[in-house]
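Lab notebook page, bench 4
Experiment: in silico fold of construct C2
Operator: M.H.
Input chain length: 331 residues
Purpose: comparison with the prior construct
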Amino acid sequence: MPVELLHLTSTFLGCRVEVPVQGRSDSSDDPSLPLEYHERSDSLRALSQTCHALRLTFLPILWECWNACVEVRAPTSSPTFWKALGDQLKRSSVRLAREPELLSYIRTVNVILTRYSSAEVIPPFARCLNRMPNMHTLQIVHAHTAMTTHLKNGFANTSLPTVRKIILPSWAHEVLRCCPEVTHVICNGDDGGKLVSAIAKCCKKVEIIEGFQLRDPNVMKRLIKAAPNLIEIKFNQVPSQATIEGLSGFKKLSVIQLPHMTSQEALDSGSYSTALPQDLQQSIEAAKAILRRKLAITKYLKIYHTAPLAWSPGRSGRPARSALIEEILLA
């Protein structure tokens, strides 16, 4: 069978962990992704062990993503999620660090970090990341809100120069400081204010940001100074006209994405309405005015349908989806 068909086959082998994970709730007691996310890796592992030819194809696909964020399968009594994930992360980090071939396959790491035995868990994980020559995306699906010091100590003297895209909550900013070449930063927790400080000090090449809440004019001013090369910004909530006006300080800005909130049922059925609410229409007009004043040759305003948090661990593993409904090219 041609290699292209084998790669196509691999896309039908179960749920992939999305980047970023959509529709999960930080209010859940257990942030782990459900067990069905093991189906894909189980299938790829079985195929890679079938014969030498299939191993050459499916082993790199299996290890393309390292998912340390899925519910741990416990043989007997189920420990708390933070203990199960912490113990597994430590074991996997130590084991992987001894496998340079597998490390070379990894492109994306999706992880949940907790305070459980942080002095024994986080340093091996950081060292393992440091040995991945081709990793370009790091997603912290969840991190405890009170573990800034744990991350600072665990990632001390760590540098991740291959990372180009990172997804993390604001309180995990110590990890962002380890990624000097990152160009795409997505905030999946809090307003992103602490991430702005990390960008200003350690990440001079940021071009795209998502999920930052820029209601505070002081945060906006700091971001303008911290990310002079910003070309694209995506909002998760409809920003005010004042926030849109604040974007005028980004000299290279050429793409703004605005959300139209709808229901998950409407997205699944394709029956969502294209009628836009008044507040979004006002933000659209303000964004058009900002982009028209920019010097970039190509400028886009994108509006996309999205659903509010419609999935949480313990329910369906299918994440929320979004659909682009309009892309406006501005002269």
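Observations: The two ends are 48 Å apart (CA to CA). Strands lie at 65-68, 108-113, 137-143, 165-168, 184-187, 208-210, 232-234, 255-261, 299-306, 322-330.
Next step: discuss at group meeting.
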